[in-house]
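Narrative summary of target 7.
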Amino acid sequence: MVATVLFSLMLVLAGLALLVIVGRLLINTLDSSAQRTGKQFADLVRTNKLPAQLLATSEGVSRIQVVDGQNRVLAASPGSDPVLSMLRSNQLGRARLGGPLTVEGARASLDAPLRVTAVPADINAGQRTVLVATDLGRVLESSRLLERSLLFGAPLAIAAMAALTWWIVGLTLRPVDALRRGAAELSAAGLARSRLPVPTAEDEIHSLATTLNDMLDRLDAATTKQRRFVGDAAHELRSPIASLRLQLEIAGRLGASSEVRELTSDALLDVARLSNLIDDLLTLARSDESGSIRSRAPVKLDELACSVTATYRDARVEVGLEVSEAVTVVGDRDGLHRVLVNLIDNGVRYARSFVTVGVKTSDGRPGHPHRAVVSVCDDGPGVPANKRERVFDRFYRLDTARSRAEGGTGLGLAIVREIITAHGGTVTLHDNLPGLRVLIELPLP
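Modeled conformation, tokenized:
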């Protein structure tokens, strides 16, 4: 649009300039022709060789008159008035001293204006003068023809320019669109899966794609080292943590006093939290590396929910299951198992009397396809509406004053969102009145 507007402005300015220049050139051509004719007849007047009939020898000259100092016609060409001068007396003096004058054509019985050039035939002022008139009608007709050509041709030129600019810009931006699509695919697949497409043309976009791919290589190397460090550190911590737990359990059993048993019990709680934190860190490290999905296969959500809830028979509160139909999705069974475990653990930790897991499919609406729906509801304190997004941040805990026995690692819901997002689903928090309802929606095959 900017290019077309600028082109239109330049075209208008160029058209106006063309009209002025062409008009001036045509008039200058007529003036030159009239000046030559006037000099020829002035020489004849001075030598007293003026023919009986004045005939123009230059193209464009339409009228010739020879007048004396009182503006009386001494001789005239065919078609010219033999009595009335083409110039009035006051115009004659200006014409002798200055340049050509434009006068109305009525003085020469013409409709178009005349361009009259006065060439003195005698040296003394007020003596004989040759008047040469050129018809401006042809100049005006040429100017009008040029105007019509510009009026009809300019819109066509602007339209052609707009279409050509649109095509060229689209052709130029096609590699940029390919970069955008590559970036979108890269965001979905991860740094290790692909790189941005490099156009074949050796231009700035080729250099940009090459530079971005080099940057992505460095980022991939850095994140790979970071993930490897987190995974190795968490893996290496498992053995000493397991050994420490075993020693504390033995010390608690062999402790002679209640104080020793209480200390070992507190230490075991911290060890358990540390072990859970290590497991969560390993899960997040794998999530960052592979997008939380290590394999894709049909997963029966109703059977998975049944097997997970069966492990909570001895939980602090009752964990129930409501399955209205068989629901199958495509995804990572281990990841979805981890999602259910994290959500049920949170529910059991904060619920007052029950936790309910539901599995069903959503009702299809126009523009909203059927989706698999998993809900985990409890009757605990819930989560304030203004903090329901923050609880998905890593290491964010709603209440830092909770006891070590009740508090989690702050990574459970972050892991849930990572896994569900990788499956193309959503996880949201809602009121259960009382309590909290966690709603998961997953695409159906």
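Residues 292 and 419 are 5 Å apart (CA to CA).
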